[in-house]
Amino acid sequence: MDENKNINTPETEEQNYSLNDDRRVKVLSPGALVMKRFWRNRLAVVGMSVLIFMFLFSFAGGIISPYGQNQFFYKDVEISREFAAVTENDEFRYRASDSTDKFGSAVQAQAMLAIQTKKADFTYRDIAYTVSEEGENFYSIYSDGELVGIAYKDIVSSSVEGTKLSFDFIYSALKAYTSDTSKGDSSFSAEGAEYTISDLGYISDASGNEVAYISRYVVQAIMGDVFLSRDFKEKLIETIMAGGTEFSYTDESLIITEDEEPVSEEEDEANILATDDVTEAEAPVSATAEYTIRPNQNHKGWSIRQLQSSRQYDTYSSPNKAHWLGTDRYGMDMLTRLMYGGRVSLLIGFIVVIIETLIGVIMGGISGYFGGWVDNLIMRLVDIFYCIPSMPIIIILGAAMDAQRVDPSVRMVYLMLILGILGWAGIARLVRGQILSLREQEFMTATEASGLSVKSRIFKHLIPNVIPQLIVNCTMSLGGVIITEATLSFLGLGVKFPFASWGNIINDVNNTHVLTTYWFIWIPAGTLLLLTVLAFNLVGDGLRDAFDPRMNR
Amino acid sequence: MRKYILKRILISIVILFFVGFIIYALMRCLPTSYIENMARQKSMQPNSKSYEEWMTQLTAMYNMDKGIIPGYFSWLGQAFRGEFGDSWFYTVPVLEKFNETVWLSFIMGGIVLIFEIIIAIPLGIVAATKQYSTSDYVISVIALAGISLPTFFFASLLKLVFSVKLGWFDLFGLVGRNYNLLSASGQFWDKAKHLVLPIVTLVVISIGGLMRYTRTNMLEVLNADYIRTARAKGLSERKVIYNHAFRNTLIPLVTIIGGSLPGLFSGALITETLYAIPGIGYTSYQAMVAGDIPFSMFYLVFLSILTLAGNLIADILYAVVDPRVRIS
């Protein structure tokens, strides 16, 4: 009210009636008056600054942020998994000759008995077998002079991936290896080729290529598709013999092919996106792996665990330097999601309010200006729209769009249209009421008397007088629309996954584990939402007071 | 007066007719995934009719084969006789399910309304009598915060604090795990305990509106001439405020509270869903999401009737409470 006092200051009562500028009382324009009153309202200023912050955060933040809206983050996780098992073979193993079927398991049992009791022959089912010791822990079993099988403790394994060793080869190799007590180099021939065995048990062919090796230790991979090289096995056994519990091994052929799959409980869309991204972000596979060796009591051996690093979505990671607010359940940066979510929430709010206002002003304007049956008709329409329960309708439509698998971006447009169409009735009523009361005022009579055209009467005199009310109303309803959109998104019926919205970010709270453990997922989004809506309401309040100082909040 | 009420009721019926039609048309335009699902299931069974045949049979069974306008009239005819059909989702008559659930919502709404009145009106009056004081600012900001608070966020916060951290209440549901083992009074307290958080949520969310309304109206009354007269007479401030101002503020308050009475039956859609309280709100939320047309149709029309009834009651009360208002 200071301005009014200024106008009436007694200075003008002095005898000086000059109209010079220095004598003139400063009068502010109506707009400036409103501004002045608005800025004097502390709460409204706070609200305004919050809003400015939110706009900067949402619209500029997305540009500044180093991450994209749909950028996934990964983490390398060291997983210790069962990789191989080593056993020292101290039991006889049997192998039947390729050409006979006379060495079944029953015969094997008999042969073992014979070996243990050091008998040279035994009979089984009226067939006589002879056992002959060919070398240390190596026996061959004959029947009718024909070699039917062998019993051995040292194991011959192929050095070349994918080749199977023939019985003949194994027999000859073992014979040469075990009978050679000096453990020096020895040679043998099998299947028409010459081979040499080194003192460590490597078998190489005539050209010096290694084809197989003999070892008492059995190293078996847990996964069937992993081939363990001789080099690896040898190093492993060396470490075991030295009593080591850890070793690392670099091998080009040991390439880890599998990737850790993303966390399972994701929605379909997420998976589709996820697989896309995995191919893009080539997962680095390290050839060097760390292994831990533990004695395994059950199998009289050692179990080898490989420390494998695998890539996973960096889900629900706590706030850190790279991600100030952590990451969400898809492994996306939370802060960036919040920025883009703010964009969506604010944009939807504005567009919906614009739609509402457009329809409302046109309908209310027509109704108020023309009156009569037009007014009656439009007002009944307003009554009908007022009466339609909007929240259930939007929920039903949202569920229907779910069933139709509407594209998320199209869905957003529909959402805005639905909210706008269901919300115009209030504005139409307000505009009509204003116009009705304005029409009766003297200045409108004056415009009519001064012969202004209908067009200029409506647009120059009527509408500008409605605008203050309209602005206040729009500001207040912006908050409402944002809450409605957030509620729908929270229920999973509004803005959908690839797009972020403050509502659907909080949606994660439906998972009780998130509610209890990961505060950084939902509390920031909720706070931003609350602050924004509160700011819109405060600014709306401030504007109302500023436009009409006599009206009390 | 009687003529006015009669006229209003007639207008309301006309509005209801159109609202019902809009809702019906909307429901009919939706993909009736429920019927399709059922037809698909039935046609999967061995020796069954084809999917198309089941489709035609089921649509005929559910009155979905007529055009929208004849369909609406046949729905109206049945509705007048009180037949709203069987709920697809709950497979019981709509009215039975409604009757089962609505009272819980009503009780909840009633308690919320009582708390709302007890808290909001005194605070609003305090804010108005001490306009521009600190307490006025605090109350105004709290009221605005209540209005601005998203229900789901506030409910989640309450759950985190009272259910998870303090462990006082359960996260979801109306009854506890061992409800069936409790005695009758134990069962009552169990339910009461489960209703605490939803009621707190609803009260906090809704007091803001009433508080601001009270404050605005109280301020208006305080600026009236008769208050100045009362003060000029030398009455104590207490008497001015409670005997003169407050009684006049009651006029709009009674009107708006009376108008909100039918709303007690509408249930709290969001809050009930958040806490999984099986009131009418949660029940119809599930039905709506599942595409249960008979139940949704009934619920939506029911809500429209409640809105119209609320407006009507408010208008009539206004005339009854305030003798200055003359209805023409």
Which class do the helix and strand fractions of chain A yield?
alpha+beta
**Helical coverage of chain B, percent range:** over 70%
Kindly state the mean pLDDT of chain B as a whole number? 86
Class computed from helices, strands and strand pairing of chain B: mainly alpha
Overall shape of chain A: rod-shaped
- Per DSSP, what share of the residues of chain A sits in E-state strands of 2 or more residues? 15-25%
**Rg of chain A:** 43 Å
Number of H- or I-type helical stretches of chain A: 16
What is the arithmetic mean of pLDDT of chain A?
A: 77
Gross geometry of chain B? globular
Can you characterise this structure?
The complex is a heterodimer of chains A (553) and B (328). Chain A is α+β, with helices and mostly antiparallel strands. In chain A, 50% of the residues lie in helices and 18% in strands. Chain A is built from 16 helices and 15 strands. In chain A, α2 crosses α16, α3 packs across α8 and α8 packs antiparallel against α9. Chain A is rod-shaped. Chain A starts with a helix and ends in a 6-residue tail after the last helix. The N terminus of chain A is likely disordered. Chain B is mostly helical. Helices cover 75% and strands 0% of the residues of chain B. In chain B, α5 packs across α8, α9 packs antiparallel against α10 and α10 packs antiparallel against α13.
Give a brief description:
The complex is a heterodimer of chains A (553) and B (328). Chain A has helices at 2-7, 30-40, 42-64, 105-116, 167-179, 230-241, 268-280, 334-370, 372-387, 390-404, 408-439, 442-449, 454-490, 502-506, 512-517, 519-547, and strands at 74-88, 93-96, 121-124, 127-135, 138-143, 146-152, 155-158, 186-190, 193-197, 202-205, 210-215, 217-221, 246-250, 288-296, 301-313.
